[in-house]
Each structure stands twice: as C-alpha cells, then as structure tokens.
Design a protein that fits this description.
This protein is of the alpha/beta class. Helix content is 20%, strand content 43%.
C-alpha cells in the first residue's frame, strides 16, 4: 500500500455532505462521504478519511488528516 502525504476533510454546505481529499505527491483523490451527519465528531471523520484512502489503495497517518468544519 502506498503512503499518502495527507488528507483533508471538509463540509460542503451546497451539497450538504463531507468531502475527503487524499494527497499523494501531485495526485489528489476526491471522495464524498454522503450519509455522514454534519455533526459527526473529528474522530469519526478522521477514521472515515483513513478508510477512504485505504479503499483507494493508500495509507494515511491519522495525525495527517486535517478537518475543517
């Protein structure tokens, strides 16, 4: 599994769901997290970001997941 540089989770107010961006070098993978409530805690969002990266074949350190509410 390849190591991702970082991940970023943010709330999209227009689409009303969380988005995850996983950065691997110059590549950025974008995924949405539909069904995750806006009130989800940071631990839940961090876990979802790690799971999302793993589903795409990348490993990301939970400490490198940035969450913006």
């Amino acid at each position: 599994m390849l190591q991702a540089d970082s991940a970023h989770v943010n709330w999209d107010p227009e689409k009303k769901h969380w988005n995850v961006r996983v950065k691997v070098g110059e590549e950025v993978i974008r995924r949405s997290l539909p069904g995750t409530p806006q009130t989800a805690g940071e631990d839940v969002l961090r876990s979802l970001a790690v799971e999302t990266a793993m589903a795409d074949g990348y490993e990301v350190d939970p400490a490198k997941v940035d969450i913006v509410h």
